[in-house]
Amino acid sequence: MKIAFNAIRVSNKAGSGFDTFIINFLNEFAKYVYEYKELNIEFDIFTLYPQHFPEVKKENIKHIKFLFLKLRRNKSSQLKNINREVVSEDKYRRKTNILHFLYPVYVLIGDYFRIFWTQFVFPFHLLKRKYDIVVSLTQLDALFFSPIAQVVTVHDMIPFLFPEYKHKHRFYLRYFFSLILQKTKKIITVSENTKNDIVKFFNVPKEKIFVIYEGIKKLNFSVSEKEIIDFKRKNSLDRYILCVSSNLPHKNLLRLIEAFYIAKNQKENIDLLIVGYQEKKYQTKINKKILELNLENKIKILGHISQGEFPVVYAGAELFVFPSLYEGFGLPPLEAMACGCPLVVSSAGSLPEVCGDAAVYVNPYSSESIAEGILKVLFDKNLRDRIVKNGFQQVKKFTWENSVKRFVDVLLKIKNNTL
Questions:
Q1: Residue 308, in any domain of the structure
Q2: Complete edge-to-edge strand list for the sheet that includes strand 240-244
Q3: Does residue 242 share a domain with residue 137?
Q4: What share of the chain is helix, strand, coil (3-state, %, to 5)?
Q5: Mean pLDDT over residues 152-173, rounded?
Q6: Please, which of 2, 133, 327, 353 could form a disulfide with 349 given CB 3.0 to 4.6 Å?
């Protein structure tokens, strides 16, 4: 069996949920297939950034090279990856001018070129190299018309559950997604909740959809007390509640801030730390809410941090709160479990499925309910200890090795026509 994986969605920084899934899944898949050669599985990974796949042999990487897709500027408009000490000033100036000329093209096309490549270039690679199956690792990378059998991974139904959000791929999702799901060979999704949503919205037979949970790279993290103290000192923190989340509206940060205001009145010596990429267009309302409640000295927003920093951030928190209105899976709660951090999470979406009995559940539409959950965990040590203990057991169910084994089983059944 010869498989093609479309990993063009992976970005250079690799900080999104899609990135985390694709990178970890494919590295684990490569290790598994190399170890069990008797499976007779050949595969290639098509990607813009091969450096994210260290477990994959060079011959199994198909490097997609489009210069303007890789152009980035930092906040001070300086171009990265140009070493002034190595490149002469004249050559640097010429190169910089060229890159600045191309940068507006990147901004204009950006992510849409990924779709163009997937729909109009990728199919020729599939035919030329004679693959048996193409695996689209996100719903945004599925082929309209696949020349071979296609397996599509669907992570969530956010654009359909929250149509008021102007998703940048809404044209594709509105006019092509349903057709793709009907035509694709099999659908993989990351939770039973998302599977049920797919059936509900698109009337896809349940038998066509297979649930393969996401995983976590480490089941426990060792963090020293010194690392925690250093992190707190660096960020002017003492005791803090942690939320790892973007500021997209369904992440529910406005109600979280209201809930923190309520909880703070009973537990004054506590701060709220929000970690994750924050989009400017949504941040205005959040900042306004913080000022309205006079919380500017009690809430700290760090923004995006590297993966290596997360264990310390989780381990130093009094508790982890995740009040999302919907999650297709929900990886941050698992990471918090693995770091021994007690959870207060929403009862919506897939979160009860993922967190099991390792969390206190709250109504995400009620600031009072979120505050009550926070206070329960802060004041009840026995409850907190029980959640942490259950979390260490719960997280063992979610490994990338288990994900890959389940995926390979589905592939072999497709090959043998037993599905």
A1: yes
A2: 299-303, 271-275, 240-244, 319-322, 343-346, 360-362
A3: no
A4: 50, 15, 35
A5: 84
A6: 327
